[in-house]
Design brief:
29% strand; 5 helices; alpha+beta; 12 strands; 32% helix; single chain
């Protein structure tokens, strides 16, 4: 399983993903699920992936044209006119790749090859944009009515973001909110795990404003985790007690 979140704020975009993939409890590995490409001063495109690992890796490989010699590769997202066209092209690759895998495996592959993606970025002269791409290749776009997307194991971390999100929040506040969301998910589901990948994309920056990997034992993440747990206990005990004598 996995957990990825892309969030739209006034200042730009914030993205976070875990790196755990597993095929049973005795086969757990770390794989990157966040990718980005940019042309300084002109555009930045970032993608996060969830689903069957071989399928998502195949989509990224097709984007980067890894079947060609390095000096012959052209990543189409770096030359597409709009972010809408970027999302369309990636959606088509997702649908095509899933169809190829299922066709090659017949009935035994039915339902096993799936993928969903979050696509984020900005092209010069246009607004930062955020999309969620479904396995069928279609997609929806974020707005300030629907300002964030999640893929993978979404249910545990969603209430945190719904209650804490504010479009005017700083990048630092947005990262803190995502840290809490991921901590709640990690506590509830063993299929999501550290390390986490974080990327902040500032409006009109066209390169990562901030990028890092949050590993096991990270001091800030540990502070967030323990502090959030203590705050929840304090909030719970501050609520009025229920009376069994109430009718």
């Amino acid at each position: 399983m996995t957990y990825c979140v892309g969030m739209l704020v006034d200042k730009g975009l914030v993205m976070m993903s875990d790196t755990r993939t597993n095929s049973g409890v005795d086969n757990i590995s770390v794989f990157r699920k966040m990718f980005h490409w940019n042309i300084p001063g002109e555009r930045i495109i970032a993608v996060m992936t969830a689903g069957n690992l071989a399928t998502t890796q195949a989509v990224i490989s097709k984007l980067e044209e890894r079947s060609k010699a390095p000096d012959e590769r052209i990543n189409s997202v770096l030359y597409t006119a709009t972010m809408f066209q970027v999302a369309t092209a990636i959606g088509e690759l997702v649908r095509e790749t899933i169809s190829e895998r299922q066709a090659a495996n017949g009935m035994t592959g039915k339902g096993k090859f799936t993928a969903s993606m979050i696509v984020a970025g900005q092209i010069a002269g246009m607004e930062p944009r955020l999309f969620m791409i479904y396995p069928e290749g279609n997609f929806i776009e974020a707005s300030f009515d629907t300002p964030f997307f999640q893929i993978g194991e979404t249910k545990y971390g969603r209430p945190i973001i719904l209650r804490g999100y504010d479009r005017t929040m700083s990048f630092e506040e947005a990262v803190k909110l995502l840290m809490v969301s991921f901590d709640s998910t990690l506590k509830a589901n063993l299929s999501v795990g550290l390390p986490l990948d974080l990327m902040v994309i500032e409006r009109d920056g066209f390169e990562p404003r901030h990028q890092r990997r949050i590993a096991q034992g990270d001091p800030y993440f540990q502070t967030i985790s323990s502090g959030w747990g203590d705050a929840l206990k304090a909030a719970f005990h501050s609520l009025p007690d229920y009376s069994l004598s109430n009718k």
